[in-house]
Amino acid sequence: MKIAYIVDSTASLNDELAARSDVFQVHLSVTYKDGTIFKDTTDEASLKSFYQRLGTEKDIPKSSQPQVGEYYEVLDQIISHGYDTVIAIHIGSGISGTYQSAEMVLSEYKEEGKLDYYLIDSNGTSFIMEHFLQQTIEQIEKGVSVEETVKQVEALVDDSRIYLAVDDLNYLVKGGRLGAGSAFIGSLFKIKPIVYFAEDGKVKPYDKVRTKSRVIKLWESLIEEALNKFNGKLKIAIAHGDIPEEAEQLKKRFENMYPGVTCRVGYLTPALGVHGGVGCHGLGIIPYIS
Fold first, then answer.
1. What pTM was computed for the model?
2. Per-residue DSSP letters for 147-170?
3. What is its biological role (predicted)?
4. Using CA atoms, how far apart are residues 97 and 10, in angstroms rounded to an integer?
């Protein structure tokens, strides 16, 4: 068995994972009202340019799942390199059609006898997907069977949590998720909505706070609860909408408060940033395979 791994671009893979010859990616994209298409990326200069434009756009750009044709191209490339098995990890099916498209194409190739596959719904996005991929590769390289590894990663999916604090309510208005009047009142009283990825894969309201300091206090209480639950074996991820300095300060704060806990920090890719907007920041709480 020769295994290849597929993730989508929202996973924000680090350079080491992205450079692996057995790791392949398909890309989401963002389309502006004028028809300009911006391919999802982790390139920092491109991300800064994207968020600068996003902050000036009257109409929120639309995010799109990877083109089915790209998935076919990636699978053909995988087969040409001698791989016979694929483990694919994708953005949650509750917020994107990426998982469903992957299942359609992968099942077609399996029916044709071209390869076998295992498909994991991350029930989230961003750095938790990166973590799931890293854990998957580590287990496979330890000699754990594919079936057992997938089972273990799916357990991680159930135990992982994502929360997002939206700094500018107008992005929720532009996305049709909040009335303009509510945004005005929310901005007036400095209300910052907190949303989370629920068990059914949908993004739902979690809490409302009025200041960034309250957001941080909420983050800390959620982290401490998870540390107790998982005996301190935990990874934290902070993904943001173009507030790198603030995100780095949070990382230092959490690493000082919780010694031994790894904290990953970086941008939300454009396909995610259009929904949270400039200034948003998310918290990922991710355990390890025990």
1. 0.93
2. HHHHHHHHHHHHH-EEEEE-S-TH
3. May bind long-chain fatty acids, such as palmitate, and may play a role in lipid transport or fatty acid metabolism.
4. 13
Query: Is 143 buried (19+), middle (13-18) or exposed (0-12) by CB count in 10 A?
Result: exposed
DSSP states of 168-206? -THHHHHTTSS-HHHHHHHHHTT-EEEEEE-TTS-EEEE
How is the beta sheet containing 29-31 ordered, strand by strand?
Answer: 37-39, 29-31, 62-64
CA distance 170 to 183: 6
Q: What is the pLDDT of residues 217-274, one digit of tens each?
A: 999 999 999 999 999 999 999 999 999 999 999 999 999 999 999 999 999 999 999 9
Residue 288 has phi, psi (to 5 degrees) of -105, 160
